[in-house]
Amino acid sequence: QVQLVESGGGLVQAGGSLRLSCAASGSISSIPDMGWYRQAPGKQRELVAVIDKIGSTKYGQSVKGRFTISRDNAKNTVYLQMNSLKAEDTAVYYCNALIVERIGVTNNYWGKGTQVTVSS
Length: 120
Fold this sequence. Notes:
The protein is an all-beta fold. It has strands at about 5, 10-15, 20-25, 30-40, 45-50, 55-60, 65-70, 75-80, 90-100, 105-110, 115-120.
């Protein structure tokens, strides 16, 4: 089976930085897309950033210029470097991956989430 495990969340002051990691393991042939979504209390889950196999990226408007997504294909891992953090970045961050498990079989997976709290 495929599992996504996030790490790197925590408490940081406004203006600070954090780096999140998400490692995929299990029956994996390839991972066309990997990314991060977040959900703050009382709000809907929103896109933070996504990256495809060759490194093309897409960012949510609120994080452009502050966050950088990257991936290590050899390690099946995606990273999110978060700089200039703001209180409004406080949320549970979820790793997401589109995974090809074998030829013709592709599934979408979610991690359990990691809490990021930014104090003012």
